[in-house]
Amino acid sequence: IRHEAVVSTQSTRGAPPKKRAQKARPSHHKGRLGKRVKMVREVVREVAGLMPYEKRILDMIKTGGASAEKRIYKFAKRRLGTHKRALAKREDIKEVYSKMRARQAMT
Predict the structure, then answer these.
(1) Cβ(57)–Cβ(44) below 8 Å
(2) What's the CA gap between 105 and 63, in Å, rounded?
(3) Residue 54 and residue 96: Cα distance in Å, rounded?
(4) 36 exposed, middle or buried (CB, 10 Å; 0-12, 13-18, 19+)?
(5) pTM of the model as a whole
(6) Counting Cβ atoms within 10 Å, is residue 54 exposed (0-12), middle (13-18) or buried (19+)?
(7) What dihedral do alpha carbons 77, 79, 82, 83 form, nearest 10°?
């Protein structure tokens, strides 16, 4: 005689399972920008200025034109390698340019 393993399939017995809130893992914090790193990067940008390819992107923003956004993206992507990095760099340089213009408007 062969005995089959009996598996309970009744879902109405006992207390229903509850989801437990889990603590955020330290690994989920990786990659976030901290206060100190942010400050250090600002100081380095202030002291060292822009890299040559960033200056070219800034020049493209200044000259503008109909397809400037796409040209800037394509240029940044060739230099940086990924779509995400190219978009982030484009926004970063735009921010630098807006700060430059704001500074000029004040003086």
Answers:
(1) no
(2) 19
(3) 10
(4) exposed
(5) 0.69
(6) middle
(7) -20
Sign of CA dihedral 52, 57, 62, 67: positive
Q: pLDDT tens digit string along 7-44? A: 666 666 678 778 899 999 999 999 999 999 999 999 99
Q: How far does Cα 105 stand from its chain's mean position?
A: 30
Annotate the chain with three-state secondary structure: CCCCCCCCCCCCCCCCCCCCCCCCCHHHHCCCCCHHHHHHHHHHHHHHCCCHHHHHHHHHHHHCCCCHHHHHHHHHHHHHCCHHHHHHHHHHHHHHHHHHHHHHHHC
Six-digit token string for 72? 């800037």
